[in-house]
UniProtKB/TrEMBL annotation:
Pfam families per the UniProt record, alphabetical: Aminotran_5
Organism: Halopseudomonas laoshanensis
Keyword terms: Pyridoxal phosphate, Transferase
GO biological process terms held by the UniProt record: cysteine metabolic process
Protein name: Cysteine desulfurase
EC code(s) of this entry: 2.8.1.7
EC main group: transferase
InterPro entries on file: Aminotrans_V_dom, Aminotrans_V_PyrdxlP_BS, Cys_dSase_SufS, Cysteine_dSase, PyrdxlP-dep_Trfase, PyrdxlP-dep_Trfase_major, PyrdxlP-dep_Trfase_small
The family this protein is said to belong to: Belongs to the class-V pyridoxal-phosphate-dependent aminotransferase family. Csd subfamily.
Cofactor: pyridoxal 5'-phosphate
Function: Catalyzes the removal of elemental sulfur and selenium atoms from L-cysteine, L-cystine, L-selenocysteine, and L-selenocystine to produce L-alanine.
């Protein structure tokens, strides 16, 4: 599990009770009760989050920060209240360090485009791990091409584990940024980000963490981690799609130019020159996803309402149960077998294309993800087109795992 969390002695977790909070799970798909195992792609939304969106549009809909009327005041208060909740959730020192984005992808692009364009010079190096999501590779490649810098991959071994000796050896004074996933979306590997951040800093580099897959599993403390930037998406934390969070250290955010121009992000505009707003608004041009932000606040309240250590232990128990069954299944090969993993089981079935497996599982009501999971370089390294990925969340049960393997038995017979 996470470096910071011990799951020993965690109290029992009532996944059945939690499940009842997620109305979408109560449906038939292709004539079978839905088993949703695509949580690494997106998590489902509890009633409280859905209701927050409905309530906002029914009662409070108004633009934020600019209206001089009751609805605008109410919307603004709820909007900024959500920012404070998120700041507390990740233990940011100040809520102005929480910047709303469209998602993890935009957070990574924002830092690459603003910090990167301002600070990278010819010959500089940006390190990312070899199993990053494309959204933590391509934005760096774009700015590196512009600035004459290079993007280099930290080696990952056959189990999906970062080679920390190789990483340490790569660090020199030309490395200006290390941008690394908290957890691999392809395999669930939990990366030793505390060490990754410390080593980056010792070498004089900054460190950005892609928390898309980390944020939902345990408490993240950005101050304890000492990361320079941390990004995540609301939709992987039981919140809405199209919204994300960029956390950054104040001194870095202050020095970065704005990402986009428009309303909200300015202090004063004239044709003689424009001045920019203070943090966090400098990075929030245009009308934001107000309903989404308020709903993310509700998602944070929801996550705070259950025992997160017990939930993490439950997810780990599901993973162990599933991987035991996988090892006993002829022709099934697990891909990504790192010692420290979230509840993600990536696998291949001998003689079957992952896509066909996914389709046949779907016909039996079991939703998984197939393909390269936007992590093509690591799939290329392993010489495979992709995997089938079953990813578990707090509302999954041991019965869900049983259903997956019953369905896989039929897939094997069929293929
Ligand atoms: C590790 C990782 N990084 C980045 C992303 C991109 O997230 P989004 O599409 O929400 O911007 C994902 C989404 O799957 C992810 O798993």
């Amino acid at each position: 599990m996470s470096e910071q969390v011990s799951l020993k002695g965690a109290p029992a977790f009532d996944a059945e009770r939690i499940r009842a909070d997620f109305p979408i799970l109560d449906q038939q798909v292709n004539g079978h009760p839905l088993v949703y195992l695509d949580n690494a792609a997106t998590t489902q939304k509890p009633e409280a989050v859905i209701q927050a969106i409905v309530d906002y549009y029914r009662h409070d809909n108004s633009n934020v920060h600019r209206g001089a009327h009751a609805l605008a005041e109410r919307a603004t208060e709820k909007f900024e209240n959500a920012r404070s909740k998120v700041a507390a959730f990740i233990n940011a020192a100040e809520s102005r360090q929480v910047i709303w984005t469209k998602g993890t992808t935009e957070g990574l692009n924002l830092v690459a485009a603003t910090w990167g364009r301002t600070n990278l010079k010819p010959g500089d190096r940006v390190l990312v791990s070899g199993m990053e999501h494309h959204s933590n590779i391509v934005p760096w490649q774009m700015v590196a091409a512009e600035k004459g810098a290079t993007v280099e991959a930290i080696p990952v071994d056959a189990t999906g584990t970062i080679d920390m000796d190789a990483y340490a050896a790569m660090l020199d004074e030309r490395v200006k940024m290390v941008s690394c996933g908290h957890v691999s979306n392809a395999f669930g590997t939990i990366n030793p980000i505390q060490d990754i951040i410390r080593l980056a800093h010792e070498a004089g580099a900054l460190c950005m963490i892609d928390g898309a897959q980390g944020i939902s599993h345990w408490a993240v403390d950005v101050q304890a981690l000492d990361c320079d930037f941390y990004v995540f998406s609301a939709h992987k934390l039981f919140g809405p799609t199209g919204l994300g969070v960029l956390y950054g250290k104040v001194e870095l955010l202050e020095c970065m130019p704005p990402y986009q121009g428009g309303g909200e992000m300015i202090e004063s505009v004239s044709f003689a020159g424009t001045t920019y707003n203070q943090l966090p608004y400098k990075f929030e041009a245009g009308t934001p996803d107000i309903a989404g932000v308020i709903a993310l606040g509700a998602a944070v309240d929801y996550v705070n309402s259950y025992d997160r250590v017990a939930a993490a232990a439950h997810e780990q128990a599901l993973l162990a149960y599933a991987e035991d069954k996988a090892r006993a299944t002829p022709g099934l090969k697990l891909v990504g077998t790192a010692a420290n993993k979230t509840a993600v089981m990536s696998f291949l079935l001998e003689g079957a294309h992952p896509h066909d497996v996914g389709m046949l599982l779907d016909q039996q009501g079991v939703a998984v993800r197939t393909g390269n999971h936007c992590a093509q370089p690591i799939m290329d390294q392993y010489g495979i087109p992709g995997t089938v990925r079953a990813s578990f969340s707090i509302y999954n049960t041991f019965a869900d795992v049983d259903r997956l393997f019953e369905a896989l038995t039929k897939v094997r017979q069929f293929l």
